[in-house]
Amino acid sequence: MTTKKKIAFAVGFALSIFVGMGVIGKMLNPPGLRERLAENRTCRLCDLSGEDLSNLDLNGIDLTGAIVKGTNFNNTMLKKANFINADVRNASFQNSVMDGATWVNGQVCGPESTGSCLTPQTAELLRSLHCQGCDLRGATLASLRLTGAVLNNSNLARANLSQSDLDEAELTRTNLTRAVARKAQFRESLLFESDFTEADLWGVNLTGAYIQKSLMTKAQLVDATLESADLRRVILHGGDLTGARLVNADLANASLKMAKLTNADFTGANLAGANLVGATLDGTNFSDAFLVGTIWVNGKKCRDGSIGRCVQ
Fold first, then answer.
1. Residue 21 lies inside a defined structural domain of this protein
2. How far apart are CA 173 and CA 201, in angstroms?
3. How far is 273 from 253, CA to CA, in rounded Å?
4. pLDDT tens digits along 72-92
């Protein structure tokens, strides 16, 4: 073998070793999730719940149908990102830049979308407090003053309304399935025939609210305040009302089957014709509550004289 061939062979051999070591290095130290997302810019239908994706450049990333519940997108670049049908409940977008992104409902985030997606309908709501029949799925509306807002027949599924003020608002026949409204204010609001299925209403204030005929199956109402609320014919199957205050509330013909009513306060409430089959009543207070005609946890109807206790 000539000297030149020996040199070429040695160089080639060294390069192969170098490349091989690089491959092995990648195998031993694969890129993390943050690096992969920043490089590939796609994660359709994937589960990113609770991940820290803050301070990244994710412009143009495709998160169609992804689960990003509780995900941290703070200070992240999300221009022209795709969030169609994504589950964004409790995700944090502080200081994130989102203009041009396509939101959960297919609408495009406007040029001032920093910290939240400002779709045309969201912008209209914030400007006029009127947005009847609007598609606000997944909208980030936390900690806002929306007193007296008119949102009848709107779609707020999986929207974030936590700590917002919606006192005296109109949300008749509104879709709030799986919405997050922790510690929100709905005092004296109209919520007739609305859908709160699996909504997170922890600590919500619904004092004096008109909620008649609404669907609240499996809703989380832990420590909620529903004093003097109109809950006639409301469906609360499997709901969690642990520690809730329902003093003087009207629950005539309401369904509380399999509901968790531990330490709930029904003082002076009207439960005529209500259904409590299978409900959990540990520490529940029924002082002065009207229970005549109530179907008790054991399936038997409370007879005349059932005030404060069920007489069977």
1. yes
2. 17
3. 4
4. 999 999 999 999 999 999 999
Which uninterrupted H or E stretch holds 25?
A: helix 3-28
Q: Tokens representing 164? A: 């917002």
Return phi, psi of residue 205, to 5°.
-110, 110
- State both tokens at 295: 């179907």
Residue 111 lies in a domain: yes
Q: What is the dihedral of CA 271, 273, 275, 280, to 10 degrees?
A: 30
Distance CA 161, CA 35 (A): 32
In a domain, 178, yes or no: no
Out of 29-38, 48-57, 164-173, which region has the weakest mean confidence (pLDDT)? Answer: 29-38
Reported as type and span, the H/E element at residue 102 is none
User: Does the pLDDT of residue 285 top 90, yes or no?
Assistant: yes
> Which residue, 63, 54, 59, is CA-closest to 77?
59
Contact 260, 279 (CB under 8 A): yes
Entry pTM = 0.86
Give the dihedral of Cα atoms 103, 104, 105, 111; nearest 10 deg.
-10
3-class DSSP state for residue 127? helix
pLDDT at residue 31, as a whole number: 74
Containing structural domain, residue 43? 13-117
- Give me the residue label for tokens 């994706």: 53
Furthest-apart CA atoms within the chain: distance in Å: 112
Residue 112 lies in a domain: yes
Per-residue pLDDT, averaged over 175-200, amounts to 98
Q: Mean of the per-residue pLDDT values for the chain?
A: 93
CB count in 10 Å sphere of residue 25: 10
